[in-house]
Amino acid sequence: MSDLAQSALPGAEFEGFVTIREAGLQGMVTLRADLAAKPVIKAIKDATGCAIPKQRRVTLGEAASVAWMSPDEVMIFCAHDKAASIASALATALKGSFATVAVVSDARAVFSVQGAAWRDALAKICPVDFSTLSEGDIRRTRAAQVAAAIWVSGKEEATLVCFQSVAGYMFDLLSTVSAKGSEPDLYRLPTETS
Amino acid sequence: MLLLTCPCCGVTAEETEFSPGGEAHLKRFGPGSSDDDYETYMFQRKNPRGVHFERWRHAYGCGKWFLAARDTMTLEVFGTYPAQTTEPPPEIIAKIKQKRPEWEGFK
Amino acid sequence: MSHRLATGGRLIDRAQEQKFTFNGKTMRGFKGDTLAASLLANGQVLLGRSFKYHRPRGVVASGAEEPNALVGLGRGDSYEPNQRTTTTELFDGLVAESQNHWPNLNFDLLALNNLVPQFLTAGFYYKTFIQPRAFWKHVYEPIIRRSAGLGKAPATTAKDPDRYEQIYAFCDVLVIGGGIAGLQAALSAAQAGAKVMLWEQTAYWGGRAPVDMVEIDGEPADVWIRRTVETLENMPNVQTRLRCMGAGVHDHGYVLGYERVADHIPTSDAPRHRLWRMRAGQIVTATGAIERPLSFAGNDVPGVMLASAMRDYVVNFAVAPGKEVVVVTNNDDAYRTAITLRKAGVGVAAVVDARQDPQGALPMHARELGIRILTGKGIRKVKGGKRVTGVEICRIDSKGTAYTDKLDCDAVAMSGGWSPVVHLWSHCGGKLIWDEDGSFFRPDPDRPPLGANGSGFVQTCGSAAGQMGAVLADAHASAIKAAEALGTTVAAAAAPATDTMPDAAPMEPVWMMPRNAEYDLRMKMWLDFQNDVKVADVQLAAREGYQSVEHTKRYTTLGMATDQGKLSNINGLAILSDALGQPIPATGTTTFRPPYTPISLAAIAGEARGTVFQPLRRTPLHDWHTENGADWEPVGQWRRPYTYRQAGESRHDAVNREVKNTRQNIGLLDASTLGKILVSGPDAGRFLDMLYTNMMSTLKPGKCRYGLMCNENGFLMDDGVVARIDEQSFLVHTTSGGADHIHAWMEDWLQCEWWDWKVHTVNLTEQFAQIAVVGPKARTLLERLGGMDVSREALPFMEWRDGKLGAFDVRVFRISFSGELSFEIAVPASQGRAFWDKLMEEGKDLGIMPYGTEALHILRAEKGFIMIGDETDGTVIPQDLGLNWAISKKKEDFLGKRGMEREAMIDPMRWKLVGLETLDGSVLPHGALAVRAGKNTNGQAITEGRVTSTYYSATLGRGIAMGLVERGPERMGEEISFAGEGDKRITARIIDPVLYDKEGEKQNV
C-alpha cells in the first residue's frame, strides 16, 4: 500500500535563511476524550508509550509523540503506516467510554523549518511571540491566511502542520518568508543572549 | 485590534486568531415559544455602550468557544471565561462592579 | 543660490560621491544626503508646483513634515509618485522628476490658475462650477482633473518588482523616536529590566539635539548619543531599528511600524519595506516637535524655509540655503539658525523678531556676533517668483499697507514656535491640553489612551510631551513609569545624564504677520502649502458659517493633503479661532489618524501577492486535473474542474460530451471537496436529530440518509448524505462550501448550548479523496478491481461498505446525485491519485471520462435535485423546495422548527420550486425574473418568480430550468413570462422539476 500513498508535496524543499522541507508521509491520529480520565491516560500510554502532555506541550515516546491540541483533544504523531494500528488499539482500549479516535494523517501536510532563525521566518506570518515557545511546546495559530500548528521539535527546528489542501500555499509562503536577504534579525540567537 | 486570553488553552492572542459570535448568554426559544420570546432570542440584542458579554471562538487555536466581558467604549477586557454557563461567573461580576460602580449589573 | 559649504556636514561622507538625476539632469551628492539636501546643494531650489495654483514651490522642511518637495521616484515598474525628498536617502543612480506642471517645471501654463485665485477659494468646487449643469462633466471636471492633483499614478500595467513583508513582534516597552529623549527612555526602560524596542524614522540617531547645540554632561550631544547607542546595541533585552516609523498606535498596545529596509539600497536582496505589527505592553512616544511656519504674504516662495530645517541643512549636510538669509521669528529658537548660518559663513541680513524686546541668551549671543535684529517687526511680503529675491518689512501690529524696510536676500528662515508631535498619543484616544506658554497642544498625562486592563498604555516624553528645554530627566521618568506599569521591579536604572540648553525667553504667538494684515496680503499667506489653503480661505469659511473644525477642514481641505497638516494644523486652528472670536482650545483639533506619514500599499499587502495572494486549496487530484485539460472554476478557495476540454473542443461541447458519456458509459468526478464530519458519542443520534430537519437517530449502521440542515430562522443552509458508521458514530457529508462552516456550527451548539451532551465531532474532510464513479458501467469497473462485492444485493442503494477495491482501502457509498448507478468512493487522500489513475486505466475500454462541476450540475438538474446556493439564497425554507418529506413531524424540536412556524413561512403565496421549460426549447437566462402583466402600487413591474438553475440538457436536447414561482406547484402547465435581455420576453411552461428517470430506476440497479 505504501507505494500507492504519497504526501501532499513529495520532496519539496527550499533553501533560504532557514531550510523548508515537506516532511513526507506522517501518521497522525486524533483522540478526543477526557484527558484526565484514568482509562484515557492508560490507553495513550499503552498505545504510544507517552504520558498525556501538559497544556500546549508535546510528549515524546520511542515510536510516537503526543501533542496537546485542546482541553479534550490530543494528536498522536507516528509513522504513517502505524496510524491505523494505533487508532484501533486506542479505540479498543476506550470502547464503552466517551472517546473518539480518528486517523487524520492524510488530512494534514507537515513541513520542517530548520535553522537557528526559524523564529524569524515564522514571525513574518504568525501573530505569535516565539520567545515564549521552547522545545516541546506546540502552538496552534494562523500562518498568514490559514490555520497551522507549530511544534518546537528541536533546538533549531520547528515542525509546522497545516491542512493538506493548502500544502502548496504553505510551501510557497514559507519559501517567501525565508528568502535569503530578508532576515529580520528579530529573535537573537540563544548563543548571543546567554 | 483586541488581545484576548482563551480560557480553554491559556493562549493570549490577537483578534485575528478568534472569530466573534455576538452577544453571550442568550436563551434559546424553540418550538412552542411565543412570538415575543422567539423574537427576543433571534433578533433583540443589547448592543450597550459599556459593559458587554460576548461570545468568541478560538478559531485558529484550540477551536473552543469562550465568553468575554468587555467594555465596548474603552475596550477594557474584564475577563474571559468558559462558555458552559448561563450567566457570568461571580468573580467577573465582582471585578466589573469594582471597576464600574455605576454598572447596573448583569440581566 | 543654495549651495554646498566647503566644510562640515555631520551626516555626509564626502569621500562617497553619488550621482543622481533630477528631471533628466545629472547631479551629484554625497552618501548621507537626503535627496532634498543634495538638490539644494546643486542649487535646485524650485522643486515642484502647487496643487491648485501651480505656484512654484521649494523645500520648506527637513523631515517627515515636508509638504512641498515631493517628486516622482524611479522609473517604469518601480516608479512611485509623491515621495518626500526630505525623507529620501540619496543613493547612486537615483532618478527623480518633479510633478504637477505642464509642460515643464520652469514654465507651467497651468500657473494661470494663480491669476484668478478668486475662483479657487475655499469650497470652490461646491460653488463655482454649479452652472450651467452640463459644464461640470464636459468642461470643468476635465480641466480640474488636468490641473489638480500631485504625482501621477504608476502605469496600470506596472508590476512592482520589489519584495515587501510584515513581521509580528512583541516587547514590554516600545520607544518611538530615537532622539536623545527616546534614547534615554530606551536606556532607562532597559536598565529597569524591560524588553525594549526602539524605533527611529530617520537613518540616524540623536534627532535634533546636535543641531540644536545641546550639551550633555558638558559635552556636545553627539558624544553622549554615540555612547548611548552603543550601550543599547549591546544590551540583550534591547532591539533598535533605524528607518522605522511608528505609523499608528491602536487598541491594546498594537502598533504598526513602517521600516524602510532597502529604499536606500535598491540593489540589495532585502525586502524594500517591512511592516511591523508590534504588540507592546507600554509605549513611550519620544516623537519630538515640529516647527510651525509663520503666515506672511509669500511664505510659499521657494527659498522660504523653516528656521530649524535651515540649520539642519547647514549642520547635517553642509548645505547653505542661500547666500543672504533673513530670519523671521516670534521666539528665541530661530536665533540658533541665525547663529549657525553666521558661523558657517552664510550671510544673515537680519533677524526680524515680532517681539518688542527679546532679551534671551540666544538673541544676546546673536547680537554679540553682530547680527542685525529688527524688533517689533514682521515680514510684509516676500519678493520673488520662483525664488526669493527680498523681503519687505513692516510693523508687526500694522495692517501692512506699507513697508518700513526692504531687505535683499535669497532665503528666508521662519519660526512660528513649535508643536509637539502628538499623533501617536492621539491615535488611540489620548487627550490633549492647550499649553498657554508654548501656544501648542500637548498630551494630557491624566487622560492617556487606555489599554486592555483599563489603564493608560502610552507615556510621552521630551518635546513630544511639550518639554521644549531639557528632556533627559523627563524621558527617564516616563520610561520608569512605563516599566512600573508593567509590573517590572525597577532596580538598576541609573540616573540620567544632564542635558543643558541656553535659557529661552517666552515666545509670543503670531498667527498672522502683520497682525492686522489687509486682504491682499492674507490672500497670499499660505497655511497648507500642499493643498493651497490660505489664511483668507479659512477666514472665508468662518464667515460662511463654518464653526466646527472638522467641517472647516473638509470645506477648505486644510490639512487633508499627504502631509496631513503637520505644518498647517495649529496655524489654521488659530486663524479659525480668531475668526470665530474664541480661544484656540474651544475650537479644538481635528482627529489624528494613522498612519503618521503615508506608508506603501505594498507593505500593507506584505507577502500576499502572486502565488500566496490567497490560499488555493487543492484536492489530492489537483495535479491530474491540471495535466488533463481542466477548465478551472473557483469554488470558495478550492479550484474544481468546470469541465475537461479536449483538443479543439469548446467549453459547451466538452460539458455536453461529459453529460452524455456519464449517462451512457461511465464518468468520474472528483468529489473530494465534499465536507466529511465524524459525529460520534452516546448522544450523536440525538444531536443529529436537532441539526437535521429529518430523523437521523433511526438510521441503521451501514445505511445512508439524505438530510437538510436549517438555521434557527428555518432557512435551508446545507444538505447532504449522512452515513451511520456504528451505534455511536455518523459520518456527515456537507456541501463543499459548508464543510468548515457546518463543523463550526456543530461545535457551537455542542459547546455553548448542549454542553452536557456526549458528542465529539472531527472534521475529516481532507483525510479522504472522494471519487464518484457514475454511469451504467460503473459496477463493471469496480468489479474489475475486485476485493469487494458491489452487487445490488451486497451493496444496495443508500448503503455503504468498508473494504478493499484492488489494493486500496476504501469506503464505498451507494449514493447518487446524478440519477445514475453511482458509487462514491472515499480513499485516504494519500492514495487518491493512485486510485484515480487505476480507475482511469481499468475503465478505458468502458468509455471512462472525467466530468466537471458543470456536468455535475446538469445531471442533478435533469433529476430535479436542488443545489444549496442555487435553489437556496438564505431566505428559502425546505417547504419552498417541495422537501416537506424531509421534515420530521415526529420531532418536538430541531434547529429551525420554530422559525418555520412563523406567519410569513406558511404564507400560501410563497414562491415554490417548479421545473420550467421554454416553449421554444431555448435556455432561460440565469436569475431571470418572471414578470406578470400590470404594475404594482409603486408603478413597478410585478414579479412572480425567478430562475434558480438553468442549463442546456444534452440528454434531453433542450434547455431545462428550475425556478421559484408564486404558488408554483399549484400552477402546473401554466405559461409564464420571463424577462430577457432588453425588452425581450421568454415564455416558459411550469412543469415537474424531475425530467429524467422519474421513477429512479437507473440509480437503483
Plain-language structure description:
The complex is a heterotrimer of chains A (about 190), B (about 110) and C (about 1000). Chain A is α+β, with helices and mostly antiparallel strands. Chain A has 5 helices and 11 strands. Chain A folds into 2 domains: about 80 residues, Gyrase A, domain 2 (2-Layer Sandwich), CATH 3.30.1360.120; about 80 residues, 2-Layer Sandwich (Alpha-Beta Plaits). The longest helix of chain A has 11 residues. The relative contact order of chain A is 0.19. Chain B has about 110 residues and is an alpha+beta fold. In chain B, about 20% of the residues lie in helices and about 30% in strands. The longest helix of chain B is centred in the last third of the chain and has 10 residues. The mean pLDDT of chain B is about 95. In chain C, about 55% of the residues are buried. In chain C, strands 9, 10, 13, 14, 15, 16 and 30 form a 7-stranded mixed beta sheet that branches. Chain C is of the alpha+beta class. In chain C, helix 4 packs parallel to helix 5. The radius of gyration of chain C is 38 Å and the shape is elongated. Chain C folds into 6 domains: about 160 residues, Ubiquitin-like (UB roll), CATH 3.10.20.440; about 210 residues, FAD/NAD(P)-binding domain (3-Layer(bba) Sandwich); about 120 residues, FAD/NAD(P)-binding domain; about 70 residues, Arc Repressor Mutant, subunit A; about 90 residues, Aminomethyltransferase beta-barrel domains (Alpha-Beta Plaits); about 110 residues, Beta Barrel (Elongation Factor Tu (Ef-tu), domain 3). At the A-C interface, strand 7 and helix 4 of A face strand 9, strand 16, strand 41 and helix 22 of C. Chain B: This is Sarcosine oxidase subunit delta.
